[in-house]
Specification:
The protein has 132 residues and is an alpha+beta fold. Helices cover 19% and strands 33% of the residues. The longest helix is centred in the N-terminal third of the chain and has 25 residues.
Length: 132
């Protein structure tokens, strides 16, 4: 009998998280990011490859399915176990959501992800060259 209450609580949490991300994308104040009017959707191919994030993790983005773009980011930092985060297409920001963060900016060699609390993780492509 508690199941409907748990479902509504989970739905509410998801709605709150979505609203926080949307507000963060709209008011972002990250130096070097384009203005919201200049935000463009990033192609999935631009996400693939090996990155280093601003928290010291090695990040590998790959597809779980050869036919559908089911993207996953694996964050590694020994001795901790790897963290696997799904990457989903969304209709806000630059078009992607990874774990709790929304993609809010990008360059050829960097991706900027904003969390609901306003913190930003910047991924820098290893080797500096985008995948071709």
């Amino acid at each position: 009998q508690n199941q409907p209450e748990a479902d509504s609580s989970s739905e509410l949490d998801n709605l709150i998280r979505k609203a926080q991300l949307e507000a963060g994308v709209k008011r972002r104040e990250v130096p070097g990011l384009p203005t919201p009017a200049a935000t463009t959707t990033v192609n999935p191919e631009a996400l693939f490859g090996n990155w280093t994030d601003s928290y010291g993790n090695t990040v590998c983005v790959y597809s779980m399915d050869a036919f559908n773009a089911q993207l996953v980011a694996t964050l590694s930092r020994p001795p901790r176990h790897d963290i696997n985060l799904p990457i989903h297409s969304v209709s806000m920001g630059c078009g992607w959501h990874c774990g709790d963060a929304a993609l809010v900016g990008n360059t050829d060699n960097q991706l900027m992800w904003m969390f609901p609390d306003g913190n930003v993780s910047t991924w820098t492509r290893k080797g500096g060259a985008p995948r071709s």
